[in-house]
Amino acid sequence: MHISLALLALVGCAMAGVHQISLVKVESLRKRMFREGTWTRHVQMKHAARSMRFMAAPGGRGPYHEQVSDYEDAEYLGNITIGTPEQQFRVILDTGSANLWVPDKTCGQNKDGCDSGLCSIPQLCPYLCPNPNCCSGGGGANPCDGKSKFDSDLSKTFVKDGRRWSIQYGTGSAAGFLGQDTVRFGSPGTNQLVVPGTVFGQATSLAPFFAGVSTTWGI
């Protein structure tokens, strides 16, 4: 009996597949901002936005300060595909979040909620406005431009979900609706890990922060 169990365990290990995905190295946002001379202002605006969020919270008393190290050169990118036939995206492999999203084909077209007072201050709009699309006016770049976008009409395995979602990051936000389709980790033609029926986010609005991340098409 013990021998049979041991043999079964060995067979299971031998049959277990190993899926690998190639990582893509790109210039970090911090290095690019240093090169362009915009890093100092970026840090100032990020700290100001944090303070505003604390003050806007119910019973907010302002932030409590603690000295920490901020490493902004720590992102890994990988290729995935969604749908049948496959639509490819390069996404941040974020282990700090369980939410997968990519830009939808309608990304950047929705301007609802732009009359909010939080959207009228250009410096704070990317951090506090409920609809990030409102922050791309005035000649600013549309953060949805230059990115691969998911088109559900082209996928025969897509299932509509429709529930709304929104995520607030330290550098901005993203929002949209949910869909369900086959997600594959890895580029087409490689040994992919295939996950049918995956629920993922179809982003219809992105914070202006993502306009400067042209090499990333999702998280």
From TrEMBL:
<dbReference type="Pfam" id="PF00026">
    <property type="entry name" value="Asp"/>
</dbReference>
<dbReference type="InterPro" id="IPR001969">
    <property type="entry name" value="Aspartic_peptidase_AS"/>
</dbReference>
<dbReference type="GO" id="GO:0006508">
    <property type="term" value="P:proteolysis"/>
</dbReference>
<feature type="signal peptide">
    <location>
        <begin position="1"/>
        <end position="16"/>
    </location>
</feature>
<dbReference type="GO" id="GO:0004190">
    <property type="term" value="F:aspartic-type endopeptidase activity"/>
</dbReference>
<protein>
    <recommendedName>
        <fullName>Peptidase A1 domain-containing protein</fullName>
    </recommendedName>
</protein>
<feature type="domain" description="Peptidase A1">
    <location>
        <begin position="76"/>
        <end position="219"/>
    </location>
</feature>
<dbReference type="InterPro" id="IPR021109">
    <property type="entry name" value="Peptidase_aspartic_dom_sf"/>
</dbReference>
<dbReference type="GO" id="GO:0005764">
    <property type="term" value="C:lysosome"/>
</dbReference>
<dbReference type="InterPro" id="IPR001461">
    <property type="entry name" value="Aspartic_peptidase_A1"/>
</dbReference>
<dbReference type="InterPro" id="IPR033121">
    <property type="entry name" value="PEPTIDASE_A1"/>
</dbReference>
<dbReference type="InterPro" id="IPR034164">
    <property type="entry name" value="Pepsin-like_dom"/>
</dbReference>
<keyword id="KW-0732">Signal</keyword>
<keyword id="KW-1015">Disulfide bond</keyword>
<feature type="disulfide bond">
    <location>
        <begin position="107"/>
        <end position="144"/>
    </location>
</feature>
<comment type="similarity">
    <text>Belongs to the peptidase A1 family.</text>
</comment>
